[in-house]
C-alpha cells in the first residue's frame, strides 16, 4: 500500500468499523474499551483498527499510562476535503455537459417519433 498521506487516509476510511470509530471520536475522546463497546469484535481487532487510523494520522492517543484516550485528528480529513474540492468543479462541468448531451439526444429522438 502506498505511504502517501492521502492514500493512507482513504485506505483508513474504506472500512466501516474505522469510520464508526471516527464518528464516535467526533463526540470526544474515548478509551479503547469505550470504542470497542458497540462492536462485536475483539479488543485486539479494535486495536488493529486504531493502529490503521493512527498511522493515517486520523487519531492520536494520549500517553497517560492508566488512561490512553484516543482523539480525532482532523487534518487528514481536511486534506481529503481539499482534494475532492479540487476536482469537484471539473466533475460538475462534465456532468453538466453530459446532461446537455442526453437532453439533446432525447429531443432528437422525440423529433423522429413525431415526424
Automatic annotation (TrEMBL):
<keyword id="KW-0238">DNA-binding</keyword>
<protein>
    <submittedName>
        <fullName>DNA-binding transcriptional regulator, ArsR family</fullName>
    </submittedName>
</protein>
<dbReference type="Pfam" id="PF12840">
    <property type="entry name" value="HTH_20"/>
</dbReference>
<dbReference type="GO" id="GO:0003700">
    <property type="term" value="F:DNA-binding transcription factor activity"/>
</dbReference>
<dbReference type="InterPro" id="IPR011991">
    <property type="entry name" value="ArsR-like_HTH"/>
</dbReference>
<dbReference type="GO" id="GO:0003677">
    <property type="term" value="F:DNA binding"/>
</dbReference>
<dbReference type="InterPro" id="IPR036390">
    <property type="entry name" value="WH_DNA-bd_sf"/>
</dbReference>
<feature type="domain" description="HTH arsR-type">
    <location>
        <begin position="1"/>
        <end position="92"/>
    </location>
</feature>
<dbReference type="InterPro" id="IPR036388">
    <property type="entry name" value="WH-like_DNA-bd_sf"/>
</dbReference>
<dbReference type="InterPro" id="IPR001845">
    <property type="entry name" value="HTH_ArsR_DNA-bd_dom"/>
</dbReference>
Amino acid at each position: 500500500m502506498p505511504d502517501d498521506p492521502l492514500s493512507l487516509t482513504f485506505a483508513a476510511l474504506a472500512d466501516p468499523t474505522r469510520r464508526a470509530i471516527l464518528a464516535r471520536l467526533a463526540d470526544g475522546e474515548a478509551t479503547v474499551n469505550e470504542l470497542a463497546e458497540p462492536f462485536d469484535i475483539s479488543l485486539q481487532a479494535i486495536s488493529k483498527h486504531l493502529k490503521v487510523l493512527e498511522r493515517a494520522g486520523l487519531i492520536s492517543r494520549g500517553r497517560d499510562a492508566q488512561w490512553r484516550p484516543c482523539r480525532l485528528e482532523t487534518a487528514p480529513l481536511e486534506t481529503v476535503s481539499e482534494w475532492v474540492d479540487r476536482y469537484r468543479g471539473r466533475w460538475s462541468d462534465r456532468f453538466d455537459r453530459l446532461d446537455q448531451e442526453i437532453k439533446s439526444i432525447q429531443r432528437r429522438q422525440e423529433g423522429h417519433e413525431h415526424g
